[in-house]
Amino acid sequence: MVSIGFDAGQTKKSLLNLNLVENYPKPQDVSPPGASNINERDLIQGLREKAEWAFKELISRWSDKLYRLSLRFLKRPEEAQEIVQEVLLKVVEKIATFEGTSSLYTWLYRVTVNESLMRLRPNKGKVQVSWEDYLPKYESGIHLGNFSDWAKLPDEKFAEKEFQEFVQASIELLPDDLKTAYLLKDVEQLPEDEVCKVLELTKPAMKNRVHRARLFLRKKIEERYVR
Amino acid sequence: MSGKSKVIRMMFGLMGLPTCEEVEQFAYDFLEGVLDSSTMKAVERHLKACKNCQRFIAAYRKTALLGKTFQRPTLDPEFKENLFEFLVQKAGGKV
């Protein structure tokens, strides 16, 4: 729990009545990715024994997830496929020496992120933005200027291809550390603890990255669709 | 500090409420529902009094949920079949 020690308020109106937090997924609502009847220990043992079912399970359980994550970074399906192949090959080659200090799940995501970022770097060439300019401005703790009400745009707008492409292009403008945290937490919907393990971050550091990414994207959407 | 900001800050201070900047800093935990109850209520009371922060939180929440709406592409089944054969071959597995 996070506390700053405010006195208990006298409000009688609930948050749900303010319609600000409904539908937001609570941590317990997030199913752990990769759930199946075969537990990780058995899967690792099967891979060590080079059993057919274990290879099938490895691909069935992880390949789509790793592909999606890599594709978010690289944008090119062929390259994302190569990453999946490389990462799963690493698993097969190194499974005998896999010590299990982190879960296979964490290891797979971490390697996929690292491999994707490594590929991205040589041909990065993206437009650099001063993303701090997109953070809210305050004067002694009070907002400067007014926020727009873009959350009230019709739902169809958010589903439009053009809107989604704009948001994804905006994600591209984020620094890698913020982008990675946002993709894992808000796009791939990994539980917080797993995001922390994959990125080797403390929870406050992970939250801070996701928060700043959201602030940036919120402002980008406001600029594009409201003003 | 402008006169308006000074008055608003004073008002929130008198009410024992967080400032807009503090509300922004609580936004992540607010949506996760992990603020302690007194802080949650203080943020809630601030939001009742501050339309601007209501709009901010609504847009922030929407931003956090946008990722769920993105397409979730999957690998071609043929690619998976080839990948299976590739891995088995590399491992010298029992197929």
Explain this structure.
The complex is a heterodimer of chains A (227) and B (95). Chain A has helices at 15-18, 40-48, 52-74, 77-94, 104-120, 155-159, 161-172, 176-187, 192-199, 203-225, and strands spanning 138-139, 142-143. Chain A has 227 residues and is mainly alpha-helical. Chain A has a two-stranded antiparallel sheet. In chain A, a hairpin with a 2-residue loop joins strand 1 (138-139) and strand 2. In chain A, helix 3 crosses helix 4, helix 3 packs parallel to helix 5 and helix 7 crosses helix 10. The longest helix of chain A is centred in the first third of the chain and has 23 residues, at 52-74. The two termini of chain A are 37 Å apart. Chain B is mainly alpha-helical and 95 residues long. Chain B has one domain (3-69). In chain B, 76% of the residues lie in helices and 0% in strands. Chain B has helices spanning 3-14, 20-32, 37-49, 51-69, 77-91. In chain B, helix 3 (37-49) packs across helix 4 (51-69). The longest helix of chain B has 19 residues, at 51-69. The radius of gyration of chain B is 25 Å and the shape is rod-shaped. Classes of the chains: A mainly alpha (227), B mainly alpha (95).
| Mean pLDDT over all positions of chain A | 82
Order of strands across the biggest sheet of chain A? Answer: 1-2
CATH architecture of the largest domain in chain A: Orthogonal Bundle
Structural class of chain A: mainly alpha
Can I get a quick summary?
Chain A contains 10 helices and 2 strands. With 227 residues, chain A is an all-alpha fold. Chain A has 2 domains: 34-120, RNA polymerase sigma factor, region 2, helix turn helix motif (Rna Polymerase Sigma Factor, Chain: A, Orthogonal Bundle), CATH 1.10.1740.10; 126-225, Winged helix-like DNA-binding domain superfamily/Winged helix DNA-binding domain (Arc Repressor Mutant, subunit A, Orthogonal Bundle).
